[in-house]
Specification:
mainly alpha, 8 helices, MetI-like fold
């Protein structure tokens, strides 16, 4: 098998990997904010429940969580999981990364000086207005480096989809390498992950620089 043939064969896997990455970000970033808000709820039951969920999600391997999301419906309810592979992968990634983003958001919010809230109150801002117009813009700027690190990690973690035999780029690289006794598929996969992370780094760096409003 030639290099061009390998590249063509693995292109579908690259698209699937990009799909996992994009959909995970779309789902986990807002869900992480929801987790963060509930994590800071004044109701102890809600606060400690979300804290426990986040602790479990961050304290167990993503690979294990993917297996639970995929096989759970079958073992618990006897459901047919034949067409459940991609939804299970997506849910597993979204929920897992939402837990990490929630803690990043929380750290950013709690780093804001109390004086910011007091000044907003004196100016007549409501709590919602204070968060939306004063706190949130500053928090987003502060947490961008941490968000960037998680996004880069996500690019590499998409390879864990092979756990459920999903045909993403890493799974195809393993299959082709085993069938053709060639190391080249792993080289192609490695270059793909490197380029993807490099592009993410460029985009996030530009976003971060656009927030340097004091310069």
């Amino acid at each position: 098998m030639t290099f061009s043939t390998m590249l063509e064969t693995m292109s579908a896997g690259m698209l699937r990997t990009c799909g996992i990455f994009v959909l995970t970000l779309i789902g986990s970033l807002p869900l992480g904010l929801v987790f963060c808000v509930l994590r800071k709820s004044r109701f102890a039951v809600i606060r400690w429940t979300i804290r426990g969920i986040i602790s479990v999600l961050r304290g167990t391997p993503l690979m294990l969580q993917l297996l639970v999301w995929y096989f759970g419906p079958y073992f618990l309810f006897g459901a047919n999981v034949a067409n459940w592979r991609f939804p299970a992968i997506l849910i597993g990634f979204v929920v897992n990364y939402a837990a990490y983003f929630a803690e990043i958001y929380r750290g950013g919010i709690e780093s804001m000086p109390v004086g910011q809230y007091e000044a907003a109150k004196v100016l007549g801002y409501t709590k919602v207005q204070t968060f939306k117009k004063i706190i949130l813009p500053q928090v987003v700027k502060r947490i961008m480096p941490s968000i960037t690190n998680e996004v880069i990690t996500l690019v590499k973690d998409t390879s864990l989809a092979f756990t459920l035999a999903y045909q993403e780029v890493f799974s195809l690289a393993k299959q082709i390498s085993a069938a053709k006794s060639s190391f080249m598929p792993f080289v192609i996969a490695g270059v793909f992950y490197f380029v993807a992370n490099y592009l993410v780094e460029i985009v996030m760096d530009r976003v971060e620089k656009s927030m340097q409003y004091y310069q």
